[in-house]
Amino acid sequence: MAFMRGKQQAEEVPLFEMSVWNCTNDACNGWMRKDYSFSVQPVCPLCQSGMSEGVRMLPQLSHYIGS
Ligand SMILES: [Zn+2]
Fold first, then answer.
1. Ligand 1 centre and the CA of 65: distance in Å?
2. Residue 6 gets which letter from DSSP?
3. Do residues 54 and 20 lie in contact, with contact meaning Cβ atoms separated by under 8 Å?
């Protein structure tokens, strides 16, 4: 896990490996950062399917829900 600090070029967004929940529905791209979820076993905010644990490389300030 690499954490980079310091000045970055405007177009360079440092990415961090974040724990996330991924939607288990193959037809849905929903996911959320664990930091922003408060449930032990959350459901997808987009389709209400169950979610499974995973990791993603994300900008530090990224919020949840991507598509
Ligand atoms: Zn979903």
1. 10
2. S
3. yes
Distance 42 CA to ligand 1 centre (A): 11
Which residue is associated with the tokens 């529905």? 25
pLDDT at 52 over 80: yes
Provide long-range contacts, Cβ within 8 A and 24+ apart, for 10-13: 13/59
Who wins on pLDDT, 58 or 3? 58
R_g (Cα) of the chain, nearest Å: 13
Taking the centre of ligand 1 as the mean of its atom positions, its distance from the CA of residue 49, in whole angstroms, is: 5
| pLDDT computed for residue 61 by the predictor | 63
Instruction: Report percent pLDDT > 70 for the chain.
Output: 69
Cβ–Cβ contacts within 10 Å for residue 4, how many?
A: 10
